[in-house]
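ugh ok fine here u go
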Amino acid sequence: MRKENNKSILIVDDDMISISALKNIIGGAYTLYAVKNGKEAVEKAKKLSPDLILLDVCMPTMDGYETIHQLKKSEITKDIPVIFVSSYSEGDDIKNGFSNGAIDYITKPFSHDCVINKIKEAM
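structure:
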Protein backbone atom coordinates (compact mmCIF):
# COMPACT_ATOMS: atom_id res chain seq x y z
CA MET A 1 0.00 0.00 0.00
CA ARG A 2 1.34 3.41 -0.96
CA LYS A 3 1.83 6.22 1.53
CA GLU A 4 -0.23 9.40 1.45
CA ASN A 5 2.35 11.29 -0.56
CA ASN A 6 2.29 8.50 -3.20
CA LYS A 7 6.08 8.55 -3.52
CA SER A 8 7.84 5.20 -3.66
CA ILE A 9 11.42 3.96 -3.58
CA LEU A 10 12.77 0.66 -4.85
CA ILE A 11 15.82 -0.51 -2.90
CA VAL A 12 18.06 -2.97 -4.77
CA ASP A 13 20.78 -4.67 -2.74
CA ASP A 14 21.90 -8.26 -2.24
CA ASP A 15 22.74 -7.51 1.40
CA MET A 16 19.75 -7.65 3.75
CA ILE A 17 21.64 -5.59 6.35
CA SER A 18 21.97 -2.73 3.86
CA ILE A 19 18.30 -3.01 2.92
CA SER A 20 17.31 -2.91 6.60
CA ALA A 21 19.60 0.05 7.26
CA LEU A 22 18.09 2.01 4.38
CA LYS A 23 14.56 1.15 5.47
CA ASN A 24 15.35 2.33 9.01
CA ILE A 25 16.87 5.58 7.76
CA ILE A 26 14.07 6.36 5.30
CA GLY A 27 11.33 5.33 7.69
CA GLY A 28 7.71 5.80 6.77
CA ALA A 29 8.06 8.88 4.59
CA TYR A 30 7.86 6.85 1.38
CA THR A 31 6.46 3.53 0.26
CA LEU A 32 9.44 1.19 0.17
CA TYR A 33 10.00 -1.90 -1.93
CA ALA A 34 13.12 -4.06 -1.86
CA VAL A 35 14.63 -6.70 -4.10
CA LYS A 36 17.92 -8.57 -3.90
CA ASN A 37 19.22 -8.52 -7.47
CA GLY A 38 19.26 -6.61 -10.72
CA LYS A 39 16.94 -8.94 -12.61
CA GLU A 40 14.25 -8.56 -9.94
CA ALA A 41 14.87 -4.80 -9.92
CA VAL A 42 14.15 -4.43 -13.64
CA GLU A 43 10.99 -6.54 -13.37
CA LYS A 44 9.74 -4.74 -10.24
CA ALA A 45 10.51 -1.29 -11.67
CA LYS A 46 8.47 -2.09 -14.79
CA LYS A 47 5.50 -3.17 -12.66
CA LEU A 48 5.64 -0.45 -9.99
CA SER A 49 7.20 2.59 -11.68
CA PRO A 50 8.83 3.79 -8.44
CA ASP A 51 9.73 7.45 -8.07
CA LEU A 52 13.34 6.56 -7.22
CA ILE A 53 15.64 3.54 -7.27
CA LEU A 54 18.48 3.07 -4.77
CA LEU A 55 20.77 0.63 -6.56
CA ASP A 56 23.74 -1.26 -5.17
CA VAL A 57 26.71 -1.42 -7.52
CA CYS A 58 28.21 -4.78 -6.52
CA MET A 59 25.73 -7.65 -6.82
CA PRO A 60 26.10 -11.18 -8.20
CA THR A 61 24.67 -12.17 -11.59
CA MET A 62 23.68 -8.66 -12.74
CA ASP A 63 25.64 -5.83 -11.16
CA GLY A 64 24.34 -2.30 -10.72
CA TYR A 65 25.88 -1.08 -13.97
CA GLU A 66 24.14 -3.73 -16.04
CA THR A 67 20.92 -3.14 -14.09
CA ILE A 68 20.91 0.61 -14.79
CA HIS A 69 21.70 -0.13 -18.44
CA GLN A 70 18.61 -2.38 -18.63
CA LEU A 71 16.49 0.23 -16.85
CA LYS A 72 17.61 3.07 -19.12
CA LYS A 73 16.97 1.16 -22.35
CA SER A 74 13.34 0.38 -21.42
CA GLU A 75 10.68 2.95 -22.36
CA ILE A 76 8.85 2.06 -19.13
CA THR A 77 11.76 2.68 -16.74
CA LYS A 78 14.18 4.99 -18.56
CA ASP A 79 13.08 8.14 -16.73
CA ILE A 80 13.16 6.71 -13.19
CA PRO A 81 16.01 8.41 -11.31
CA VAL A 82 18.66 6.07 -9.92
CA ILE A 83 21.01 6.70 -7.03
CA PHE A 84 23.88 4.25 -6.77
CA VAL A 85 24.61 2.87 -3.32
CA SER A 86 28.04 1.35 -2.81
CA SER A 87 30.95 0.74 -0.51
CA TYR A 88 33.17 1.79 -3.43
CA SER A 89 33.99 5.40 -2.69
CA GLU A 90 36.93 6.26 -4.93
CA GLY A 91 36.59 9.10 -7.42
CA ASP A 92 36.62 6.76 -10.41
CA ASP A 93 33.85 4.63 -8.88
CA ILE A 94 31.64 7.65 -8.36
CA LYS A 95 32.47 9.02 -11.82
CA ASN A 96 31.58 5.63 -13.32
CA GLY A 97 28.23 5.74 -11.51
CA PHE A 98 27.36 9.09 -13.01
CA SER A 99 28.56 8.12 -16.47
CA ASN A 100 26.24 5.10 -16.37
CA GLY A 101 23.19 7.28 -15.76
CA ALA A 102 22.89 7.65 -11.99
CA ILE A 103 21.77 11.02 -10.66
CA ASP A 104 23.70 10.61 -7.41
CA TYR A 105 25.91 8.27 -5.40
CA ILE A 106 25.65 7.25 -1.73
CA THR A 107 28.56 5.50 -0.05
CA LYS A 108 28.37 2.79 2.59
CA PRO A 109 28.38 2.87 5.55
CA PHE A 110 25.34 5.09 5.34
CA SER A 111 25.12 8.53 6.83
CA HIS A 112 21.52 9.18 7.91
CA ASP A 113 21.56 12.84 6.86
CA CYS A 114 23.27 12.09 3.55
CA VAL A 115 20.68 9.46 2.59
CA ILE A 116 17.72 11.66 3.56
CA ASN A 117 19.10 14.74 1.78
CA LYS A 118 19.92 12.89 -1.43
CA ILE A 119 16.48 11.28 -1.51
CA LYS A 120 14.78 14.63 -0.93
CA GLU A 121 16.82 16.20 -3.73
CA ALA A 122 15.92 13.36 -6.09
CA MET A 123 12.23 13.57 -5.32
